[in-house]
Amino acid sequence: MAAAAAAAVGGPQPPQPELPAPGLALDKAATAAHLKAALSRPDNRAGAEELQALLERVLSAERPLAAAADGEEAAAAGGGGGPGAAEEEALEWCKCLLAGGGGYDEFCAAVRAYDPAALCGLVWTANFVAYRCRTCGISPCMSLCAECFHQGDHTGHDFNMFRSQAGGACDCGDSNVMRESGFCKRHQIKSSSNIPCVPKDLLMMSEFVLPRFIFCLIQYLREGYNEPAADVPSEKDLNKVLQLLEPQISFLEDLTKMGGAMRSVLTQVLTNQQNYKDLTSGLGENACAKKSHEKYLIALKSSGLTYPEDKLVYGLQEPSAGTSTLAVQGFAGATGTLGQLDSSDEEDQDGSQGLGKRKRVKLSSSTKDQSIMDVLKHKSFLEELLFWTIKYEFPQKMVTFLLNMLPDQEYKVAFTKTFVQHYAFIMKTLKKSHESDTMSNRIVHISVQLFSNEELARQVTEECQLLDIMVTVLLYMMESCLIKSELQDEENSLHVVVNCGEALLKNNTYWPLVSDFINILSHQSVAKRFLEDHGLLVTWMNFVSFFQGMNLNKRELNEHVEFESQTYYAAFAAELEACAQPMWGLLSHCKVRETQEYTRNVVRYCLEALQDWFDAINFVDEPAPNQVTFHLPLHRYYAMFLSKAVKCQELDLDSVLPDQEMLMKLMIHPLQIQASLAEIHSNMWVRNGLQIKGQAMTYVQSHFCNSMIDPDIYLLQVCASRLDPDYFISSVFERFKVVDLLTMASQHQNTVLDAEHERSMLEGALTFLVILLSLRLHLGMSDDEILRAEMVAQLCMNDRTHSSLIHHIPENPNPKSGIIPGSYSFESVLSAVADFKAPVFEPGGSMQQGMYTPKAEVWDQEFDPVMVILRTVYRRDVQSAMDRYTAFLKQSGKFPGNPWPPYKKRTPLHPSYKGLMRLLHCKTLHIVLFTLLYKILMDHQNLSEHVLCMVLYLIELGLENSAEEESDEEASVCGPERCHDSWFPGSNLVSNMRHFINYVRVRVPETAPEVKRDSPASTSSDSLSSLHSSRRPKVLQRENSGTAQVFSLVAERRKKFQEIINRSSSEANQVVRPKTSNKWSAPGSAPQLTTAILEIKESILSLLIKLHHKLSGKQNSYYPPWLDDIEILIQPEIPKYNHGDGITAVERILLKAALQSRMNKRIIEEICRKVTPPVPPKKITAAEKKTLDKEERRQKARERQQKLLAEFASRQKSFMETAMDVDSPENDIPMEIATAEPQVSEAVYDCVICGQSGPSSEDRPTGLVVLLQASSVLGQCRDNIEPKKLPITEEEQIYPWDTCAAVHDVRLSLLQRYFKDSSCLLAVSIGWEGGVYVQTCGHTLHIDCHKSYMESLRNDQVLQGFSVDKGEFTCPLCRQFANSVLPCYPGSNVESNLWQRPSNKSIQDLIKEVEELQGRPGAFPSETNLSKEMESVMKDIKNTTQKKYRDYSKTPGSPDNDFLFMYSVARTNLELELIHRGGNLCSGGASTAGKRSCLNQLFHVLALHMRLYSIDSEYNPWRKLTQLVEEMNSQQGNEEQQPEVPILYHDVTSLLLIQILMMPQPLRKDHFTCIVKVLFTLLYTQALVALSVKCNEEDRLAWKHTGALKKNACDAEKSYEVLLSFVISELSKGKLYHEEGTQECAMVSPIAWSPESMEKYLQDFCLPFLRITSLLQHHLFGEDLPSCQEEEEFSVLSSCLGLLPTFYQTEHPFISASCLDWPVPAFDIISQWCFEINSFTERHAEQGKALLIQESRWKLPHLLQLPENYNTIFQYYHRKTCSVCTKVPKDPAVCLVCGTFVCLKGLCCKQQSYCECVLHSQNCGAGTGIFLLINASVIIIIRGHRFCLWGSVYLDAHGEEDRDLRRGKPLYICKERYKVLEQQWISHTFDHINKRWGPHYNGL
Question: What is the pTM of this model?
Fold first, then answer.
């Protein structure tokens, strides 16, 4: 054999190995064994050569893909069985060789035994269900497979289940990523000692075979790759190659699964450089190898990569831009013109030097980056494999193989290094890829496994320059889509930004790289290296500056923009992911003092980058108008690092702040954003379309706010605390364009703002100031305080579910920061501020989730309107918060009116930011406040309550934060001197408040009223001056400065700016530059303005007091409180002032002002005395009395109106309840049907369409609005109490044989086997499955009105939730769903007294009458409208259910079918009503169903139709019940035809309905009672027979004996003992009791029968009949049902039905037999009935017995019982295969009625265009299906052709649904919800309660 093999090797190599087919396996095995032996010898060179030669032959790479190389045609032609067969052959050889001649499976098992796996390492792909436990995870990316998770102990942990998006791997056992406490039982660290050492010869063959095999694979990959001709990679080709290689890669994957031993061999093979060199150098004489090496080099080149040998040539062409400057000037200079920027579309061909040049300049030292970007040298199989994996765009199989190897530590390191080495190449391939999404997922699938491990990340950072590579690659990537920035100076700008419209940003192509970067920055050791490396920081700031100012918006001033660009999504996402998240990552490592240096570095380079940016956009001092960008990442980096420095590192703020000029520049753009927000909300940007609103919302939205608006506001706070306050305040008003508005004059001209926007812009400016001054997020609040404030703000807007709170509270974006939602602090803060409201149900059926609502003390003390305003995305939320606050105050009795936002005390400022409060104490602000107060008092236009509110808020802030050292005396002394320069003497608000301002000079338009005056003491200000006349002299001393001059904010600001600029001489040359952007003209430049002087004579204090009068609507309403109660000044915190409206606010401010200075207190008292000359209280003038009376009258009228409204509302409510309420018996009001009094002969109906009332007549009938639906609820009743559970293991199955429907089915088919068909169909009822249930809302309408209503619906094109073509509509009055109209029979509704009078006829006479009445043929009434309607509704009823539920006859279309169907409809409705009442009639009374019942009308319709089928009097069961047949033997003769059903086998309730429906309507009461009495005798006999069959032989004999003794007693016919003994003796004549075989024992009950238990059995047997009969009587004759205890139900019902003689004594125990009233002698008739049975049991004793024992006690129907925890359902069903198509369904669902597992929407299980769920709903529920969707945890209802999502019955610990299992938290059953669902199912009210229905087109 060996010789043969050698010969084969030595000869010329044939293209295909021509080995003989037979005995092939034997051959291989033998060869393998031989080679193994040869290799085991010490001198194994010969063996090795032999093996090499064999492998060379078997794994020759020439064949399979040669075809692919020549083009597809050849492949198609030659691709018969060729390549495929050869592949398999090669694989077979490999398996044989590896096993060394043994069996491959045994080999696998042997290797597995040596697996020391301490790691799980299971790799999964997208959509796999995995778990993540935050309690056990060290890395945020940690994940576990389900098996490891369930085997570990995670009770009480914060974990969730998730569907993997990109794929992942199980980390169980890896202590770098998770804590060991969370490991599962299998992976709790095994010590490696107990794993035996691997025997050398086991894996020896693998070490020889695998290198060749992998090389072969690589050759295939080389061969198969063709450079795409055009720029489109031919994806088809790539996929074709991959399909061919599928078996090989799978083989490798299987090897990795053999465990650690095999993995280490593979690692050796993959990383051994010598092996690689020997096999792939391509230097051998083998042409094939050469060719493949060439292909490899071509592939490298075309990827823009060089092979190191060519490096010299390449290096010469490099432009030597060795400079490492990053300055923009350098960039511009090197490129010459910026024209080349636009040509960057053809990127990535880095060979084209023109482009390369442009990029090189941008990067620091070119040599380093060159090597990062362009050089790849492969030294091992692993490296080349990864290269091809990337080239082929990460095929899933390859990715899985590479990841499966990771548990091997040596491999992990090697692979990570290789991955980093290929990083730049990955980026290039990703950019070109057409499937970038899939590819991104696969990249992250790999990288997250590598970079989450801190140890590994650190090692790679040190050894492979990981950080340099990442930053450089990111920079390169973004450089391909830069455009010129148009911010500020469009022509000369040198700044470039990313273009958000490019695919790279739009499709988020960069996210894999950014997410890797964020991932490695989360490791402290790596982040430290980054923060220490200055070069890296410079490069990174350079990268960030690409995003600075991107997506610039320009305000459209003329027409609406044509195309609304949606690029802003990309811009926000890019800033968040590429800039903010890395920033948070870095910040998380700057927590302690020792890290100060890092912060200094970042701040330094950040400021440099900002300076470069200002230079590049040519910024001096004014922002360009009508432009805004929301993206200032450099500003935000700077701000956040400053904040961290002060908060955590105790750095001195001033040491990291730039000079004043830089601060001024820094504040401009963030301030511009704040002003633009106000403009956008004022609708000044409407012409830019909706997207600009979208940007404004995104900017403050919870995921973005702490990386966007918060840093911006913080930066402005820092600037404000260091800049001159007057400058800052005037800047703000100028930015908001409201400077011109701030004038004392009543009219003004605004050069930059339309009048309609003025008010909202002014509100915006003041609100911004309030936020700026009162927000403390970065100014001294601790993390927990911040969290609490955020939470309170969210809860105040609306009650929130737990998950929406987590969603709305800005989390710290860095996962390692400690405050993760769901963490300890989150929960503890939540429980401190909120109460949990458990999920509730509203009667309408809409389900609430568990909500959190703020506690009362939170509203009282913590409600902070400022925080709410800052955090609202929609303005309506602010209103909502205020409404809720108002409601709280009303409810708690704290304040009845409309409150103002409360003033909230702030946390103290951090000392570094004390300067911020100077804003409150600067003259500019005081002038603004004074002016606004004055304007509000004078009612100037464009001012609102909101403005006043903010003005008062600012004054109060100023008083709260005033400098303490101000003393009254000093201020008053130097008043006059200080007064000359401006309005106010000093800058302290406390003293400025009392300063009187007399005259103000203003510029006004000539048309203004102020112009008409000539002297200061003009007439128009009389009203004011008269008040002050007494004060005049005292004030004059202060007036010596003459009139105050015009105050121009802008002029002030210009002056300040000029001063600063002149100070910094370096910039002196720029001052000269003419201001092109100056659109702002100082007020006064417009020619038509003229100067006027106003006499004011007010101070802030006096304005406030007058404001109090104005707000309260009374003169002199303010009275200083301290005059009555001096205490007030000592303890200022008075709760009375905490909540209230403007009046309260003014009082609070005046009190604070008085507290701060004695002077103010005195002046306030003085003003109050002046304003209000004391009035003697007694006299009220006539005029005043008049106004008082008027007030009183008004008040009364108001109260009356309130009362009326309340009354109206309550009426409306009660109507709605009546109309909508479906099942609450309490608050129902009887509807119109029942309103007719018994005396009235004609019932009167109201038509809800035309509104007329009148009786129903033959030619204009009225009908009831009804809904007909098929129902199988009755069929689901079961006879045992043990509830059915939903199966959650393979063993549990549900078989439906014990349901009511199944039992009835079996009975009917049994009868049909042995008896005459027509007679069988009268002996039972159908409709247990698919019965028709009729329900009504109780409203009536004329049938002709209804027809026109339907027409109008049909023409109405609005898509309703129902189908008009199927006759569906909603009731015009109450909108309840309906689909038919049931005609009302003319005549009285409740049968009139005439019929009810008890007649004294004997029972025999009545029996005859009944028989005669039934015998009369029921001629169908003449063709009237009514009869037509009766026919059509009957048709509707029939069409409601499917044919299979109507046809039970053996002869199709037989009239007996219809007959059976019709009385069964009556039965179904009665039975269902009984179930709705809880299965018995103990509660009595008329239930809701009774009031709304349509049974009466339904009976008329059914009776009318039943009478058409007269039963032949021969067969009428009535005969058999009431007459003795003479000759017994007549029947015996007719052998040939089947006998009739014996009367004892008849269902008595069915007989009752047949008898009643056969009578002419309306029925007489005494006839009814007569029928009931007769049927009761039959029922009682049946009970006795059943009892006799149930007991055993001895009991029977005993009873037979005792009964026979009493037979001749007078009441023998009414004694059950006598009757029972007679029955036994009669039946003993037949064979019924004979077959006492073994199998009978099961039926025989072992209990001993006592007289009590027998009595109970008989009563229970008869009760169902009595209940149905009583219900029927109640509906037909309108008698109320009595209520009773359960044990006396039988006696109460029987007396109510007239079965009990009235003189019956109730003393001794009640005996059921006393109800009997035999129409003919009892013993005769019983013996006649028993004879029928005996003649049947002669032949079929078995069946005879089975038919006699009827189970009459059905329990109420229930849905399946569900397990407590949803996970048990999910784990069993989400992997379960469908029984029909044997696949795992994409959307599995399970039926909650019967437990069947179905595919939702699955095309696999479609039958005749019906999908499986729809089909099942028809079979299981006659059109109603209730399904639980396994993957979504929701319940879906199918009703006929419509469906709706019902909601979920599983809620998490916070009472919330988790639709689609997105959050993946554990879910628990909510029993109340499940009860509601079940209730709706039983009461058939899905259609009425659920609102959102849609058609399913059979596709579910």
Answer: 0.82
